[in-house]
Each structure stands twice: as C-alpha cells, then as structure tokens.
Queue: 3 jobs
Job 1
Amino acid sequence: MTAAVVDPWAVEAPAGRFLYGLNPLAKFAAPLPAMILLVFVRDIATPVAFIALAYAVLLAGARLSGRLALLLLVALPAGAALIGVSMAVWADASRVDTSVTIVQVGDWSLYGGALLIGMATGLRLAAIIALALIAGLTSTGPDIVRAMVQQLRVPYRIGYTALAAFRFVPRFGYELEVIRQAHRVRGSHGGRGPFAALARWWGYIVPLLAGAIRHAERVALAMDARAFGAHPDRTERHLVPWRRRDTAFVIAFWALSAGILIAFFPWTL
C-alpha cells in the first residue's frame, strides 16, 4: 500500500470555500477584463459595484481570517479615502465643477467637483485591488507556476526558475534576522543615531551577501542533481487541472461584470 502524496505548499481548502478549489488561472482570468476596463472608468458607482462584487466573492469563497477582515474592512477603504482626498487637493480647480465649495482656506478652496474626481480615482484603484485579491489571497506561488506550465505552456525552465528566485525572499529575511541577533549578542555597532544605524546596516551586507551566494550555490546544485532543464518538458508530481467549475466561474464572473458595466455604463457615446 503506497502512501498518498501530499503537496507541502498546497493550501488546505476549508469546507464550503470554493475559491481554493479553482484553478489559479481561472481566478486571474475572471476579474481581468473588469480590472482593465476600470482603468477607463470615471464615475463612482461602477467601482463601488465591483468592490461589492469582489467582497461578496471573497467572503463566500475565501477563509475570512482576522488579517483578511482588517485588510478588506479597514485598510482598503482607508487607502481609497486617503488617495481620494489627496487627488482632490491636487486637482486643477479650472477643470472641475466649482459650484460647491467644501473647504476654503484663504485663497485656496476645495470644490465638490474635485472631491468627486478624487474619490472616483481612489475607488477605482480600490476596486482593481479588491478584484486582484480574489486570486492573490487564495492561490499559492507553486500552483500558479504549475498552472502556467500546464495550461499556458510556459517553459518550465522559466516558471520554476522564477519560483526558486521568489523563494529567496523569505530566506533572506530569515538570514537577516539571524545576523541581527548575532550582532546584538556580540554588541557590535551599538548606539543610536543615523551614523550608528548606517554602521549596523553596513555590517549586515557582507554576511547577507555571503549567505545569499551559498544558498544560490546549493539551489543550483540541487537543480543540476535533478537534471533540471535537460529535457524540453518534465513530469509533474502535482497536477493543477482546468475543470468545468473553472469555466463556469469565469463565465459567471464575466457575465456579472458585463451586467454591471451595462447597468451603469460609465462612458459617454
């Protein structure tokens, strides 16, 4: 009896959370047309509708952790409001509706037209981010690479090399923390102020680069030992197939996106 093969990088799909069982390419392809068209939208209702759609999909199909709730309910709205106000402050008063004055300080005035334009920009960016989170929060890097290699026919030499390089980032973070702890134990580069901080960071560079070179050599040897790149294709241990539910999700999302755009039609003929 053989043991089942378990993917150590797979995301365990919670019960009733359908996004984790979809192909990563389906979660990218479904909101992509809406994300592109939102760049050319100038009203407020359309991005609000897409934000509501993205939130509904995420709340129904993703694991709602505390961090995700904080991102969706606090960070994203606050960022949209901050961008909206900033864009309104810097808007050209000669090109906006000046019939309503919101704030007036001396010779400077914040008009209602500028605020509408700024909030439309902030909401548009928030809608694009919210749609991108559908795939970003429920997909892993290895599954995305596998889907690109299996469905999009991306050469595995490119896909898995990029994935190996991406995994260097957490490794560097771990090694940097180890180096910082070692410097604290030895009492190196103590003190306060900008010069002490510069000396500390300069002391981190050489050991960090040395560790990066050693790690790169180990990865290269491991890839050579597995005959990476010796053949035009390779056998996949874990498959990421495209199923009927992926097609249904993409079509349903496209239909909802088209319905929102037709209902609000944020362009003038």
Job 2
Amino acid sequence: MKKFLLAAGLSMGLAAPAFAAETVNYQDENLIKQGEYLARAGDCVACHTASGGQPFAGGLPIESPIGTIFSTNITPDKSTGIGDYSFTDFDNAVRHGIGKDSTLYPAMPYPSYARVTDADMQALYAYFMHGVKPVNQANKPTDIVWPLSMRWPLSFWRWTFAPEVKEFKAPVDQDPVVARGAYLVEGLGHCGACHSPRGIGMQEKALTAEDGELYLSGGEPMDGWVPKNLRGDLKDGLGSWTEAQLVQFLTTGRTEHTAVFGGMSDVIVQSMQYMTDDDLTAIARYLKTLPGTTYNETPFKYDDAAYNALYNGDDSAVGASVYVDNCAACHRTDGKGYAEVFPAFTGNPVLLGNDATSLIHIVLKGDTLPSTFKAPTSYNMPAFDTRLTDKQVADVVNFIRNSWGNQASPVTEKQVADVRSDVKAAAYGAVSKAE
C-alpha cells in the first residue's frame, strides 16, 4: 500500500505553525509506545526499509511513472536521518509535505496524513526520536532523467492537490466506531494511496468518502499487482464480505474464501496484525459503510457445470486441462479450495475485476501466504512461468474467471505476455538498483 512516489524536492511553501509542542515530554515511555503503535498503523516501515536493511533506514527502490525513487532514512541519526528535526520540522514533512529544504513527492502520503491529529503527531515524533535505533545510512539519489528530475514543480503539485492540514473531526451524529475507522483508513492507514484511482497529475482522485464514489474504488497497477476495490460492490468489491471476515483477513491475511497476496501481504505482516481488535473492527465497519459503484448487481450464485464436467473426466473446455494438471490439486475441481489454506475461486472478487493483472501475476510467479501471529503456518504457490506458455496462462485464467458461476471479461495472450515482461523487468530492476 504506498509504493508510488517518495523523495524530496525544492520547497516553495511556508512552515507549518507549531502548537505548544515544546511543552510535551517526548521521552515519556507511554507516549513513545503510543507512537510505535501509530507507526505500525501507518505502516511506515514498509516503504522506509530496504530488503535486508535496517528498519526505517530507507533505501527501498520505488518505481514510479517518471523513474526510480529511493525511500529516505527516517531514523534519528543526526547526519543521515531525521535526528536533528524539531517537532515542527517533523510535522511539516509528515502532514504538510514540506521537508527542511524541500517539497516531498506524494508517495510520502502527506495528502492522507493531513488528517492526523496533533496528539498523534506528537506521539509519532516521540517514537521516531526516542524509540527507533539511529542508523547512519546516506540517502540514495533518485534515478529520474532531466527534465523530470527537476524538483521545483512539486511545490505547485502540493498547492494544487494536497488538502488543507486539518485534523480529523467526526460528524456529531456518526457512530464512534465508524468514525475511528474513517480516521484510520483515510488518515494514518492512507489506504487510498493504493486503493483509489489517480489522475493525470498522479494525484488521488478522491481522498475521503466525502469526495465521492471513486474513493477506494480500486487503484492503479503497482509492481504487477492491482489494488482491489474496497467499496460495497458485489462482483469485485467487499459487498459479499462480512465485518467478521474483514477483521479476520486484516489480522491473519486469510479467510475461509480468500488469501492475501502481493503488496498487501506486507501491510498485514508489518502493520495490521499488530493492531487492536477494536481498531480492526472500526476499519472493517467503516469500509462496510461505503456503497458500491455498480447498481442492480445480483449476488454470486454457484454453478456446478464446470465441476460436473471435470468430475466426469471432461476437460474439453478451453483451459480446463491446464487447470486440472496445475491447479486442481490445491484449488479443487469444484473451485472451492481449502479454507484458510488455498483460496476459493468461486465468486472471489479479486478474480472478477476488469483488470486480471494480479491473477496473471500469481500464475506466472506464484506467491506466499505469509505467517502471522494468529495464523502461523505459511503456504507457497509455485511459479508457472517456466512451465506454461502465454496461451496456456491466458486459457487457464479465462477458465478460472468464467467457471463455477464466475463471469469476467476475457484475457488475451498479449496481456499475459505484457505482464510477464513487466514482472520480469521489475524484478531485474529491483535487484540491480538494490545492489
């Protein structure tokens, strides 16, 4: 969630006003602990820690439409990190998008953090100054060609697209649980950074539910994964999920019907599983208040035609034989998988969206269902990129997306070839840039 744009550019804005920050004891253990929890809720470690690197020391390569950017060192090291930041400096960066001498790229999700409360900002500052180990690690320069590498236009981006910094205030008549969920989702959790569509200026088209139905309606492909629709649509959203299923998913990364994959795995492992049941319930309850964007949808209805054909040895349907040979052992011929182990394909919203990139990616490269505190067993799906041709992948993906009652648009051989190429290039680029 989060890996879109991150770095610094020339600042042309005013510093944020301080708010009695000098009266706070930032070495208070309770405040530091609260800040640690909030940093977990914000999943700060995911972007600011390179593979195999020290926590929060930066250096993670982040692909953007204009080139590669590297996350920055946010440990309290005074020479390479943020150790010499005052509270006002910290607040300017996090909520206003203004570094000490720069405007920040908007994948530092300050458009969302603009809603964080003053009290939570103070706790976060206490944690990063006194709860994080300093790491002396210089920041890496961006890999963006001129003239796109010029930083001064970022100030105009901020003036145009970043909202006013105004801490979250719930409507008087709003359910306090829903209000807490809105604060976490729209603010610290910055879910919209991945799960909302972006405009021509790379800005989120909607930052809160009040901005309309585009909010959390599904994001742009990132690293070969498509952030899913989190609204109430039955086909490709959360309309068929219960609140309890959402809480279970955010805690464990799995439910009876589905399993986490891609970038969301890091969010579950690094952030969500550490959150309280009350906060996860608040998030789930808030998400369930968001209406769908498609009207007159009918609930998924299972169709056993594909299962009966396979059960009786008929694999003549296009893609059926590929499915039997490679998928059925885990996901079963009835498409229902095994609860909390191998996800079901039947009515699975991830599989039924218009963009099948995520499914193609998983078939090609496999994935790992991560271990969590409440679900410690990890499961691996193998990669099939060396075993299946582009045509075979397209055939099996179409079979999955249109069997057992599923209905989705067709996938072409060229789409598979494009995803294969993009995933291979991203993997090569990530390794070479990390080195």
Job 3
Amino acid sequence: MTSSELWTRATADRYDAEEAENSSAAVLGPALAFLAELAGDGRALEFAIGTGRVGIPLRELGVPVAGIELSEPMAAVLRRKADEDTLPVTIGDMATTVVPGGFTLVYLVYNTISNLLTQDEQVDCFRNAARHLEPGGRFVIELLVPPLRFLPPGRTAVPFDVSERHLGFDTVDLVEQMLVSHHFTLDGDDGRYRRANSRHRYAWPAELDLMARITGLELERRVADWDGAPFTQDSAKHISVWRKPA
C-alpha cells in the first residue's frame, strides 16, 4: 500500500456529479484525441482510473483500455458503466501493481501522481509505467505547476477557486513539498458547506524528468494543455510525454 489517501464510498458516489464539467465533450475531447493518437493500434493502461471519466470514452474511441485503481468504491462506480470484459480494472496502487501484457501507452491524468506523498513512491510510479510499456511506448502525465509564484513572502495559502458553490484554496509546506487542497462545497439548498481536504506532494517538471531518466524513459515533449499549446513560464499545468526507447 502506498501513501495515497483512500477515496471513500461517499466521495466515489458524488465524484461524477462534481466532475460533470470536466467530463464534458468540450473538456475531454482534446485529451481523448491526444491519448488515442499516442496509443495508436496498441493498448492503453490508465493509472488511478477512478470512475472511468477518461478511460471509458477512450475505450469507446476504439482504444483497448485497462486500469489500476486503489479505491474499490471508485472502481465500483466505473463497473456500473463498463463490465470487466470491456474495461478490465485491477485493484491496487499505481506505484507497484502489475497487470498482464504490454502497452503502447500508460497515462496518469488530473494531477494524480501528486497523490503519492513521497518522492520514492513517485519514482516507483515511473518505474511501474516503464515496466508496462512496450519498446517505443509512452508515459503521459497531466500535472499542475506548483502555484508558488502566487505566494507572497510569509504566506502559505493561495486560492484556486472562488465560485458560487465552491471555495478552494491550497496551503503549502515549502520544505516538504507538500500541498493540502481545502474545499468548501455548497451542499444542498440550505446554505451549508461541506468541508474536505486532500494532501499532495508537488513536483516540478524537471524533477519528473529526472524520475523518468532514473527509470529508463526519455522526455519526448511537454505542452501546456491537451490542445498542444507551448509550455511557458506562465503555464498553470503541463502535459508531459516520456518515451521508452525502442
């Protein structure tokens, strides 16, 4: 078991509703096209597949997809949408769990590598991706750039969402590279807010590149979004692609 915090049944049951906007065709379309092109005629493996927000529509595009998921409640929600023959899912952690066969694509989206709370486990995640990839295959990560530019001296918190139904801010431990996301979500129509938080270990792009080199992968490209915009010093996130040498 890794240090990833286990998502509960209550969280799993409301996940799809809370992520409805990020599951729309407008948002998912570029990501699916990006991943499908890299998968080519091969198989794709999604680390932390969750409820299938990405894996199921990618499978519907004709890419054979398998998944690894730590949370049984999250996998149970996926299973209501796709059976095991359509999309096989193995319960386990993304840093060490091994599934049969080789893959042309392994991918890990939506900041999920940060759920691994130690550097060693994040390196193990890269190692596990390399283990599953066929020669020439790619490992793709979607990850936010740490929001440290928004922290004035002496401050440890930065807001990331202030909307009608949700207030979100991150608190940062600069020494340990730990970030805690705090969420206050309007729950129902009685004005009450539900509070939740999650811990993450942030990593810089250069640190991820070193993890890749340690595990035998080579950086192929880095862009700012799924549409392929150039990655710059002002980019809020990155999509990085590492290749296993043929």
